[in-house]
Design brief:
There is one protein chain. The chain is of the alpha/beta class. Helices cover 28% and strands 22% of the residues. The protein folds into 2 domains: 232 residues, Rossmann fold (3-Layer(aba) Sandwich); 61 residues, Arc Repressor Mutant, subunit A. The radius of gyration is 23 Å and the shape is elongated. The chain starts with 22 loop residues before the first strand and ends with a strand.
Length: 321
């Protein structure tokens, strides 16, 4: 009896309709897939992506985007260490004016495996447009050795599937190894399958270790031409100023901030951690910086400071809760 012929199912390329890739932030953060942000500790990777989440929460355009069309407003799901939420992340979200009702934290022990169906269901329920895993190595199930491609690869492929099924952008934060040799894209901790699974890889570095300015270079972009490098500077508790490479970055640290910018930074300093400060105290703290009208303009521009009347008719300013 002749052997039965078995044919693998096929489909002609002509039977598929081409689809244009979509981006949360072109070309750095594509939708329906993974983005890896890698860099040394202390370079502000968390502050960088937190500012992106804040813009998304308020329906603000992404950095360098100039458009008359309304910006997307959406929710973020954030994997972050439990001890960091109240002491670090929430104060930063307040300072940068994020809509905290649109940013949710994972609030139980959850580990990433080759089956992330619970994560998929959570993203759907919250309608999260952005998912941040910071850092991904902390959330891998202990049975997966991050240095072995077979294990990590299955997790990354599952995350890719979840991103595609939920129309979300999943961002994985990864630290670098101490070994500076080899290609930039392979310098992260763990298997190369981490960056291989991503459609975009952003590399955060610093030209000067004594500087607060970080450079972001897109090492990989599978869905379009790679974006131009850009810079960001942490100018307050979580606040980030984005700078295009076309600007003179060497001059940025010496650029004298405007009086209103100084007033904004002073207000953020005075009102950090939810402190209520009297108008009189604020006037004393800012009188050598600028006029009171400039302070009021700075308050309005920040948009997250409220004024209330206390005992004795004294007015206090405080960050909105």
């Amino acid at each position: 009896m002749p052997n039965e012929i078995k044919i693998i199912a096929t489909k002609l390329a002509s039977e598929f309709e081409p689809k244009e890739p979509e981006f949360l932030w072109f070309p750095y953060l594509p939708r329906k897939t993974l983005t890896v942000i890698q860099g040394d500790s202390g370079y502000g990777k968390s502050s960088f992506i937190l500012n992106i989440a804040a813009r998304l929460s308020n329906g603000e355009h992404m950095p360098f985007v100039q458009s008359s069309e309304p910006a997307e407003m959406g929710n973020t799901l954030y994997f972050i260490d439990e001890d960091d939420k109240e002491s670090m992340v929430v104060p930063r979200l307040i300072n940068i004016g994020a809509d905290r009702s649109k940013i949710a934290f994972i609030n139980e022990v959850y580990r990433l495996t080759s089956d992330c169906s619970a994560l998929e269901d959570t993203i759907r329920k919250l309608n999260s447009r952005l998912v941040i895993i910071d850092p991904i190595t902390q959330y891998l199930d202990s049975k997966f050795n991050m240095n072995i491609a077979q294990g990590v690869g299955s997790v990354m492929r599952e995350l890719s599937r979840v991103a595609a099924q939920t129309d979300s952008t999943i961002v994985c934060i990864v630290h670098l190894t101490k070994n500076a040799s080899g290609k930039e894209i392979d310098r992260h901790l763990g298997s190369s399958d981490i960056s291989n699974a991503a459609r975009s890889v952003l590399y955060v570095s610093r030209d000067n270790e004594d500087s607060d300015i970080s450079k972001v270079k897109q090492l990989k972009c599978s869905l379009s031409k790679r974006g131009e490098p850009f810079y960001y500077e942490i100018v307050g508790n979580g606040m980030v100023e984005f700078v295009e490479e076309t600007e003179t970055v060497d001059d940025l640290p010496h650029k004298e901030p405007t009086k209103q910018e100084k007033a904004k930074l002073k207000l953020l300093e005075l009102l950090s951690n939810g402190a209520a400060v009297s108008r009189e105290e604020i006037e004393k703290a800012t009188q050598l910086i600028c006029s009171w009208s400039t302070v009021e303009d700075a308050k309005t521009e920040l948009g997250n400071i409220e004024s209330r009347r206390g005992k004795g008719g004294i007015y206090y300013w405080q960050m909105k809760s």
